[in-house]
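Project outcomes to date are best conveyed with an example. Our students and postdoctoral researchers have been running inverse folding experiments weekly, and each run begins with a structure described purely in tokens. The record below, which covers 387 residues, was selected by the lab manager from last quarter's runs and is presented without edits.
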């Protein structure tokens, strides 16, 4: 395969993000990685470099499935109505999610992205007297909110194998308001088995019964490890367990801002009380509702991601670099040099890769999985940059 510059730069552009949201969700490094050192001060909305292969934010390179895209467009016909007064409405979507998980609509909460739910859970359960337990590194949104609320954040380092240290997290959970358990974890991509997660939940319920456990399953649909099982079906019956999922990843709707959570009725009621009424736009509801109607989409899209991910993992392994076992639409590779160096060299060749993830930023880079064609072109760039 030849890598002409024209081929490399012929690609789509992608979405931009609001400064404040980016900082809140992913920290200041993310902003600098996205915008360059002056982005935060310019007040401009960041733009992807023209034609860049964007492997930065774990988005789905294909966007929404075509029927969902059509439904999003059709949704604009209802733009003059509140999302409760159109079909499909927010309650239609809530019922569709509940049917899928085999629970009641009263066990489901919708969010403007699962990120909104991460924020609400932290608002509901952490405080200056009830600390947060999380991992390091993991997805940062919850810690950001906890710090804002004046709560202590106990960030438990990963094990040497790059896994969440569930024993240490269970110890730290005594007296905590909330535990944030990202499974699969971002940025490592690693996943814990059903038996490990269940044992963790049982331990925390025994030793700290007031503590809420938030299992973030943003990447659930991509998992290929057979020992994994979602907690979503069991959550309604488990005291103090909340599970969040998103339409931003496998369903390709990061720009539509829609996610959901599942838990026992009391937890959902509390989270509903913190919601902005009608927080999901009509086209977003319409797209998400339609995406759930096609049972063939999910396995097809998962297969596509798995193939492109395996190609990328093989590339790194064949060149002598270790990659943590990914069950997501990104990989975390030990490139043996600072991520910042790798990132700026890749960017010069038209490939954007993930931000720094302290404390592993001196050795590891996170690379989102694009289409197979994008990964083939990106790997040629990686080869050149790492040589
Ligand atoms: C682990 C994890 N949780 C939650 C989110 C938030 O996603 P969204 O708000 O788009 O649903 C992300 C986004 O990248 C994520 O990686």
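After processing, the design step wrote out the following sequence:
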């Amino acid at each position: 395969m030849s890598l002409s510059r024209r081929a490399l730069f012929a690609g789509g552009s992608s979405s931009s993000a609001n400064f404040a949201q980016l900082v809140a969700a992913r920290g200041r490094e993310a902003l600098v990685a996205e915008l360059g050192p002056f982005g935060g001060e310019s007040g401009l909305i960041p733009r992807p470099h023209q034609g860049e292969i964007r492997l930065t934010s774990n988005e789905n390179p294909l966007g929404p499935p075509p029927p969902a895209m059509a439904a999003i467009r059709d949704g604009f016909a209802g733009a003059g109505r509140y999302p409760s007064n159109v079909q499909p409405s927010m309650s239609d979507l809530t019922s569709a999610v509940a049917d899928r998980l085999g629970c009641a609509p009263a066990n489901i909460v919708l969010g403007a992205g699962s990120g909104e739910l991460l924020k609400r859970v932290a608002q509901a359960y952490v405080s200056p007297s009830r600390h947060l337990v999380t991992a390091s590194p993991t997805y940062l949104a919850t810690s950001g909110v906890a710090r804002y609320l004046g709560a202590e954040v106990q960030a438990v380092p990963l094990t040497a194998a790059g896994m969440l240290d569930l024993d240490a997290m269970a110890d730290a959970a005594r007296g905590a308001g909330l535990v944030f358990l990202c499974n699969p974890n971002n940025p490592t991509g690693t996943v814990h088995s059903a038996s490990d997660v269940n044992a963790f939940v049982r331990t925390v319920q025994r030793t700290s019964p007031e503590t809420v456990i938030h299992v973030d399953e943003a990447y659930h649909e991509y998992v290929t490890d057979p020992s994994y099982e979602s907690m979503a079906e069991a959550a309604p019956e488990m005291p103090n367990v909340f599970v969040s999922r998103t339409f931003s990843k496998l369903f390709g709707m990061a720009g539509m801002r829609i996610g959901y959570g599942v838990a026992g009725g009391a937890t959902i009621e509390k989270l509903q009380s913190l919601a902005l009424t009608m927080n999901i736009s009509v086209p977003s509801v319409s797209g998400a509702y339609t995406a759930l109607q096609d049972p063939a989409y999910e396995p097809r899209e998962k297969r596509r991601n798995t193939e492109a991910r395996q190609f990328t993992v093989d590339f790194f392994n064949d060149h002598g670099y270790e990659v943590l076992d990914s069950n997501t639409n990104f990989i975390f590779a030990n490139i043996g040099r600072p991520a910042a160096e790798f990132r700026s060299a890749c960017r010069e060749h038209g490939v954007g890769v993930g931000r720094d993830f302290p404390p592993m930023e001196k050795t590891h880079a996170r690379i989102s999985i694009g289409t197979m064609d994008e990964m083939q072109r990106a790997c040629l760039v990686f080869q050149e940059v790492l040589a």
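Residues 342 and 385 are 7 Å apart (CA to CA). Residues 297-318 form the longest helix (22 residues). The training component of this project remains on track.
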